[in-house]
């Protein structure tokens, strides 16, 4: 997989209703949540695009750009579409986008390599990661060839669920196995945040 053909995209446009505040800005130990993922993927791609509708803080780098959803309330698929449109509108040469959530502090670049290095581009236009056979719909690799279909399904047909749309398109999955803590653990609630703190302490 040619990493130069991929734009890294962090989807941080969610409303974080279950958490009660913008999760990406929550402090965990020495960093805010969004910086955990940014610092892992920053050196893996030529550019990183953050999709966020709030005025958020994040690690400062010339490689990182932030935009808002081109249309609000379209869910994660709207963030994917916004990233694809940004590529087209700015005449970028990327053929794929690799998407990441902003709330998974234990994800490491090694897991990104294990995912991308096991992909055969000829098999599909959409790939998701599985960990221990659990599918993660935000950790994905999306072909720019999906742009027109995605826009039509979102804007004209009202599609919103990543799971359903991916199944219709025909998604391939790459499964990664973990014996101990799952690095794809994501923080949805205050209780999850406390659990993350416990995991960090246990790893010290």
Describe the structure.
This protein has 204 residues and is α/β, with parallel strands linked by helices. The protein has one domain (3-203): Spore Coat Polysaccharide Biosynthesis Protein SpsA, Chain A, CATH 3.90.550. Helices cover 31% and strands 22% of the residues. The protein has helices at 33-41, 75-89, 109-116, 147-156, 162-169, 190-203; strands at residues 6-11, 27-28, 31-32, 48-51, 64-67, 96-101, 126-131, 134-143, 172-176. The strands form 2 sheets. Strands 5-4-1-6-8-7-9 form a 7-stranded mixed β-sheet, sandwiched between helices. Strands 2-3 form a two-stranded antiparallel ribbon. The protein is globular and about 45 Å long.
Could you please say which CATH topology applies here?
Spore Coat Polysaccharide Biosynthesis Protein SpsA, Chain A
Q: SSE string, helix = H, strand = E?
A: EEEHEEHEHEEHHEH
CATH hierarchy: architecture: Alpha-Beta Complex
What is the spatial order of strands in the main beta sheet? 5-4-1-6-8-7-9
Number of strands: 9
Please count the helical segments: 6
| CATH class label | Alpha Beta
* Fraction in helix: 25-40%
Proportion of residues in extended strands: 15-25%
Q: How many distinct domains?
A: 1
Characterize the largest beta sheet: strand count, sense, and whether it forms a barrel: 7 strands, mixed
Compute the CA-based radius of gyration.
16 Å
Please state the average pLDDT score.
93
Shape: globular
- State the end-to-end CA separation: 34 Å
CATH-defined superfamily:
Spore Coat Polysaccharide Biosynthesis Protein SpsA, Chain A
